[in-house]
Structures
1.
Amino acid sequence: MNDDRIKLGVLWKNVSQKGNKPYLSGRVQEENIDEAVGLLKRGGRLLILSNTKRPDKKDPDCVLYVVPDRSQAEAAQTPAPARAARRSNESPFP
């Protein structure tokens, strides 16, 4: 999955002015936006992961990625004869 991820941006945890509603805000990385939008148009999903590499409190809390849909990723990794056999419930081998 790591190879299929496109880093779209970073997010910081915040709390509303009244102090009772948490939310995330952030920035988009412009250099990856076209590739990320293309993947989203093909059914990709958003994935938010905690940023475990935060040497400074000013660093983002989370990283925003675009990843392929699980069914698309599995289909890309499965050989074509096996996919066809799965659809028709037949063995791909004689």
Note: The chain has a mean pLDDT of 82.
2.
Amino acid sequence: MANITVYDVLIKRITDDKNDIQQALVDGSPRSFEEYKFSVGKLHGLAMAENHILALKKHYEESDED
């Protein structure tokens, strides 16, 4: 069994959340432009968080190699 890190768990949760929001947008769930903008803002925030976590994971893994 592979070692699952906290990074992997967070990235999986963020990916799931992003997919849910994207699917809601595709399905036409936002009833107003404000709801649409809110959903897009959440996607942007999740993408930023994911990028930060991936960078931190990379840094952590590289420091373990030293």
Note: The radius of gyration is 15 Å.
3.
Amino acid sequence: MEYRSIFENLFRRFLQTALLILDSFPALWEVPLVDYNSKDGQLCNFIDSCTPPDTAQEAFELFDSNFERHYTTNRAPFFMLLEEQWLANSTYFEGMFT
């Protein structure tokens, strides 16, 4: 008998959570995108659109300098939007973990 009541409580919680997830939010949502600064000082929306780094160290500095600038001046989310081609390049990928 106890197992049935535990199961029923869990199921009720699941349904309540599922209903919250399925609710719509009818409004325009805005997510701020923070510009990156490329190695030559130009602004770019995504890492892929910045001037490509030549070495793993330059790739690391691109992430590090932009994160440091963002962290010390802004508390909005810091998005690292990367495409597959960036991660497939071994030099760039290595620079992310230097």
Note: The CA atoms of residues 39 and 62 lie 7 Å apart.
4.
Amino acid sequence: MGKKRRSKKAALPTPGELRLLQILWRIGEGTVDDIVRASEEDPTPNYKTVQAWLRIMEGKGQVDHRQEGRAFVFWPLLGRGDVHRVSLRHLLTKYFAGSRSDLLMELLSDERITREELHQLESLIRSRRQEQI
């Protein structure tokens, strides 16, 4: 693979960029044509639009490419976890004034939370407490 470039501070991907990242996470890497074909959207995205987005995303450090013959093969530089962290920080700052406890209380007050999810959260909290000791 080519050189790996990462942005110093990952920016929140736009909805279009996120769709392309999700395709790349699923297929690993691919040409513009591969990405268009792997799209589950109806209608499929326009080839030239995907190509332009990938160039923009490359400038932002979200994807990189190498040349194979006449085609460019793209792969993601941001992982799902990177995007989850950036998205959560954005949500926390924008809607909860940076308060993690307010965010967690809102999540816990949701009646759709399952017993299994509650157990996972309890285990995570216990584990974090042990790390603090």
Note: The two ends are 43 Å apart (CA to CA).
